[in-house]
Amino acid sequence: MTGADAIHPDLKEASVFVTGGASGIGAALVEGFLRQGARVAFYDRADASATVEEMEARTGNRPLFLQGDVTDTPALMAAIDTAATTHGPVTVLVSNAADDTRHDAQALTEAEWDACLAVNLKPYFFAAQKVAPMMEAAGGGAIVNMSSGSYLMGVPRLSAYVASNAAIMGMTRSLAREWGGRGIRVNAVAPGWVMTERQKTLWATPEGVEKHRQSQCLPELMHPEDLVGGVLFLTSNAARMMTSQMLVIDAGVSVTG
User: Fold this and answer.
1) Of residues 43, 124, 151, 161, which has the active-site annotation?
2) Can you give the residue ranges of the Ketoreductase domain (predicted)?
3) Which of 72, 97, 150, 180 has an alpha carbon within 20 to 30 A of 216's alpha carbon?
4) Which residues contact 59 (CB under 8 A, 6 or more apart)?
5) pLDDT at 5
6) 155 or 132, higher pLDDT
7) pTM of the predicted model, to two decimals?
């Protein structure tokens, strides 16, 4: 049994919105919420029509797929409105969409820097801003911002991405303090190196993977499903007094505290 198998009764029928839910960690999170009986909408620029059918077949619960780019703020706001109209006011937001393309810091251009933050930081704030009134009117809600263990470790060739994820944690703490009185909890999750298809295709060389595995306390490689239990916990009443925190799920690579 894994954390993804735990049942949180309060998540049944919850209106959940996930960005970047078509593949990788995001798809695992969408399916995890579907298994809880939640009403799930997810937003992604990739066509996820086939994914919707597969998820419904596996869980008996059909998600609402809304296609668009998180860098298009008006489109993202409209998608959240559509989700709220279809499923009720959003009370669980998981901002997950990200782009961890590697780059040489010396050669990074201003346009590339701006493009990185446009994906990895800006949508996190405006999605939270959009759902906050819905959550307050509903009596409360939970926001989980997916950060990255890369910023805890200062991983090279990811300077703009690492900066974005450090900012996500700062923003998480600020919003948690500002919105706690409105019944809104805001937390972050920092995954380690998760073996998504993207990672395996682009960067996970046998040598690199083995070196990273040796840096973990736990010997098994991480997979998208390993993030589901922690996110479900943070969005459920099991974590009702937990806010302004970062949950590090990285098999013990980082040391915090």
Assistant:
1) 161
2) 14-193
3) 97
4) 31, 34, 35
5) 86
6) 132
7) 0.95
Looking at residue 203, what is its pLDDT?
66
Is it the case that residue 215 has pLDDT exceeding 60? yes
pLDDT at position 231 over 90: yes
DSSP letters spanning the chain = --GGG---GGGTT-EEEEES-SSHHHHHHHHHHHHTT-EEEEEESS--HHHHHHHHHHHS-PPEEEE--TT-HHHHHHHHHHHHHHHSS--EEEE---------TTT--HHHHHHHHHHHTHHHHHHHHHHHHHHHHTT-EEEEEE--HHHHHT-TT-HHHHHHHHHHHHHHHHHHHHHGGGTEEEEEEEE--B--HHHHHHT--HHHHHHHHHHSSS-SPB-GGGGHHHHHHHHSGGGTT--S-EEEESTT-S---
Q: Which domain holds residue 161?
A: 8-248
**Does residue 75 lie within any of the structural domains?**
yes
Q: Is residue 3 part of a domain?
A: no
Domains identified in the chain, total number? 1
**Residue 78 maps to which CATH number?**
3.40.50.720
Answer yes or no: 161 catalytic: yes
What pLDDT, on the 0 to 100 scale, is given for residue 2?
66
**Does residue 178 sit within a domain?**
yes
Q: Is the pLDDT of residue 257 over 90?
A: no
Query: What is the pLDDT, as a whole number, of residue 139?
Result: 98
